Amino acid sequence: MRKIYTCFCTDVIHEGHLNILNEAKKYGQVIVGVLADEAMVRYNRFPTISLDERIDIIKATGLADKVMIQHDIMYDAVLTELKPDYVIHGDNWQNGPESAIRENVLNNLKKYGGQLIEVPYTYNDKVKKIDDRMKEKLAMPEFRRKRLRQLIKLCPIVKTLEVHSGLTGLIAEKTIVENNGELDQFDAMWISSLCDSTAKGKPDIELVDMSSRIRTIDDVMDVTTKPIILDGDTGGLVEHFVYNVRTLERMGVSAVIIEDKTGLKKNSLFGTEVEQTQDTIENFCAKIKAGKQALRTDDFMIIARIESLILEKPMDEALERAFAYVKAGADGIMIHSRKKQPDEILEFCRLFREKNKSTPIVVVPTSFNSITEEELAKAGVNIVIYANQLTRSAFPAMQETAVEILKNHRALEVDSKLMPFKDIIRLIDEL
Ligand code: SPV
Ligand code: MG
Q1: Which CATH fold topology does 3-131 show?
Q2: Cα(338) to centroid of ligand 2, in Å?
Q3: Ligand 1 atom closest to Cα of residue 310
Q4: How far is the CA of 15 from the centre of ligand 2 (A)?
Q5: Domain spanning 140-387: which superfamily?
Q6: Is the pLDDT reported for residue 179 higher than 90?
Q7: N or C end: fewer C-beta atoms under 10 angstroms in the chain?
Q8: Residue 237 pLDDT more than 90?
């Protein structure tokens, strides 16, 4: 009997899937691969039900002769092992980043003479409604909030991009690239104090208040589903921090990072060029403890940021703080540095990991930007934050456009550098 293979990466079965399975039945024994969680998250389909449940919903159709797990987005391993006579798929993967997967399937089939069958993709109002509902589910606080902890478990390193508006949120949400036959995307979003303040034309000194920061978070949340890490500056007064933590948790933010500074906060990238005061270990631990006590769920993370290396204090001091903060209940440690080379960050990670294998480590490689995600993951880092690059790329582009229009007294000269309006519109979802 001939074998036909298809791979599903879905949390709901709709008529489009049933159509594929019914079509497959005509060719022989139907084997369905269910994409594993680690692969789902790289494919922009964050699972809302478990792998076992996804397997069960396929079995429940009664149309699969065998159900198995496919561990990778690409089909190399599964096709080499199974050598099915056919692979069947909807024709919706012919364009865009998914065409890399199609290409991969065709190359594998060619090796042993297998065939690809493509069926017209079912996209009607009913299917669209199911798709939309899935997406909405991911945007709900209870799903979004826990997603960061899930990602830390699933990904070698959680790739996080700075966002400060609905539009930048959409860029973090939707940018997918195909690189060397692999698909890639950002996992999470960082709402930076520096960039949120800059977008408002204000200095990064805790001047933009929490109500305004919440407004930014809400704008981002309105159009995205990915988890949010908030830059909480110093966390402010303990008495205020506990209320803010509750608000953020209720909204569906996944984590707040607070830094161990006190007094008028200045941006860390100024280092010792400006006066900055580090809080005592005791005070900062009390803030962490109070924040943890205010939480209502186990999902939300309070991450403690250590400024010792920024302030050119010794490594031992940074480590002493890290262990104390973890003991006080911190769910993660962010270690920051403004050195061009990553050596002190790597040294910190090595020494911290000697004693602590599990507490997530967060880094922000703005200055030490030559280190790769792979190298950071190998050093034991769990979250990497690209904290300001979107803002720093947008600003010179906008400034140059403004200068050119002023110089030429018209917009014709800049037009070739601008994104066509229809492309901007395409980025924005219509309900
Ligand atoms: C931010 O993005 O606001 C940060 C990171 O706190 S840094 O600017 O490097 O201090
Ligand atoms: Mg900041």
Answers
A1: Rossmann fold (3.40.50)
A2: 13
A3: 10
A4: 47
A5: Phosphoenolpyruvate-binding domains (3.20.20.60)
A6: no
A7: C
A8: yes
